[in-house]
Design a protein that fits this description.
The structure is a single chain. A 7-stranded mixed sheet has the order 3-7-8-12-11-10-9. The protein has a 4-stranded antiparallel sheet with strand order 14-15-13-16, covered by helices on one side. Helices cover 27% and strands 25% of the residues. By secondary structure, the chain is α+β, with helices and mostly antiparallel strands. The chain starts with 49 loop residues before the first helix and ends with a strand. It binds phenylalanine. Phenylalanine is lined by residues 17-19, 172, 174, 212, 261, 263-264, 283-285, 304-306.
Length: 439
């Protein structure tokens, strides 16, 4: 996502906010990773025997047909369909309903609770809290209701998971704003899992968690202040979020950056100075009047914010790789306890990565997100990074890409044999599903 580049903070944290630019154009951060001297050459598929091929069919465990987790019951057939208008793989289906944010001993749940504490102790009338709204929403909820333009890139099949042309896995918690406002809620927090097709590296995962906050004001609130409603809401919003950042991070340096979202005006980003870098932690702004009008709040003014819980948790708990949040390894899960914000994670091991390169001639419909989906579909959480390391166009106008795939388990050493098998499968499926020509 095109957020961070140019503001000086870590490119690694650059994709949590989806809607920063009017056009929503993406810029790739993956191009910049250097060659690693430990890289091994690409395996060629011809090096594999048919026995390897047979074995490679067994790489994935069967997928349950109905998920029942955290009170959410979702049938696989309702989500994953073999139709061109559906782009949801089984790996994503298995994440639905896991609800890391509702586990009080998980870093994401601990962080959610710490933010709840801040709002509970600073506001007499508590914020209404929602943390089990279903992640399957309509295109109308996800985009139209929050005024995302019809041609915005975030609506594309390349960026969003579609169940069918009218139904998506929410790509932000803002998908619930309009509905909750229409129901009459004036102060609320929505926490949930959100889904975005994306590239692969240590800070990007196609499922992550966001918290949305909305507060509605009525004329009484701002009339005595001598400010207009918008200025009053913007000031209140900034005060609220600066307080939250201090509550979570202590006395930190912070700065506000003006930005753009379709659903707020003015819009801001908050950055905090952490470990010698400016880190974007949230997006927010004064809610577009049209949203308030449609929800029966014409005479009101409101603010809204959306923050990414993983990126905050990675910093607060020193968690080096976003895949760890999904780990069921006791050496990870046992390090966190309820109410303990910011306990530093002690890596239990660092297993060596294994690199495999693959080159192919791309076609017009090729996208890096599609490539990453195929790779994740095969290697799951064993893939750590997919990085474009070479890109050229020949005299005939054919473009070749070379990608370096880093395989690494967080939990154990991988054998050469299993990596070769994964890579063999990747090559085969990249060729057949993406219709590219391997070199
Ligand atoms: N929904 C926005 C995103 O995911 C964040 C946001 C929420 C910005 C609310 C402004 C107001 O990028």
């Amino acid at each position: 996502m095109a957020v961070a580049i140019g503001f000086g903070q870590s490119a690694a944290f650059s994709k949590a906010l989806l809607f920063l630019h009017r056009s929503g154009r993406r810029s790739f951060t993956a191009f910049s990773a250097p060659y690693s001297s430990s890289a091994t050459a690409a395996s060629s598929s011809s090096a594999f025997s048919s026995a390897d091929k047979l074995r490679s069919q067994k790489w994935r465990a069967p997928v349950a047909s109905v998920l029942e987790r955290g009170g959410v019951k979702i049938a696989r057939d309702d989500v994953v369909r073999d139709e061109p208008t559906n782009n949801i793989p089984d790996t994503i289906f298995t994440k639905l309903g896991q609800q890391l944010h509702r586990r009080n001993q998980h870093p994401i749940g601990i962080l959610k609770n710490a933010i709840y504490d801040y709002f509970d102790s600073n506001y007499e009338n508590k914020f209404d809290k929602f943390d089990d709204l279903c992640p399957i929403v309509t295109v109308k909820q996800n985009f139209d209701d929050v005024l995302v333009p019809a041609d915005h890139v975030s609506r594309s099949y390349n960026d969003t998971y579609y169940i069918d042309p009218q139904t998506v896995l929410r790509c932000h918690t803002s998908a619930h704003q309009a509905e909750l406002l229409s129901m009459g809620h004036k102060k609320f927090l929505v926490t949930g899992d959100v889904y975005r097709r994306d590239s692969i590296d240590a800070t990007h995962y196609p499922v992550f968690h966001q918290m949305e906050g909305v507060r509605v004001f009525s004329p009484n609130d701002w009339e005595l202040s001598g400010q207009d409603g918008t200025a009053y809401a913007a000031e209140d919003l900034k005060k609220c979020l600066e307080g939250l950042a201090r509550h979570l991070f202590g006395a930190v340096e912070m700065r506000w950056i003006d930005t753009y979202f379709p659903f707020t005006d003015p819009s801001f980003e908050l950055e905090i100075y952490f470990q010698e870098k400016w880190l974007e932690v949230l997006g927010c702004g004064v809610t577009e009047q049209e949203i308030l009008k449609r929800s029966g709040n014409s005479n009101n003014v409101a603010w809204a914010f959306g923050l990414g819980l993983e990126r905050l948790a990675m910093v607060l708990f020193d968690i080096p790789d976003i895949r760890l949040f999904w780990s069921t390894d006791e050496r990870f899960t046992s390090q966190f306890s309820e109410g303990q914000l910011g306990v530093k994670f002690k890596p239990f091991s660092k297993f060596p990565p294994c690199y495999k390169d693959m080159s192919f001639w791309i076609n017009e419909s090729f996208t890096e997100n599609n490539l990453c989906e195929v790779i994740r579909g095969i290697a799951g959480d064993l893939v750590e990074e997919v990085c474009l390391i070479d890109d050229f166009t020949n005299k005939k106008g054919m473009t070749s890409h070379c990608y370096r795939i880093a395989y690494r388990s967080m939990e154990r050493s991988l054998t050469d044999e299993e990596i070769n098998e994964l890579q063999w499968n990747v090559r085969e499926q990249v060729e057949s599903k993406l219709k590219v020509v391997l070199r």
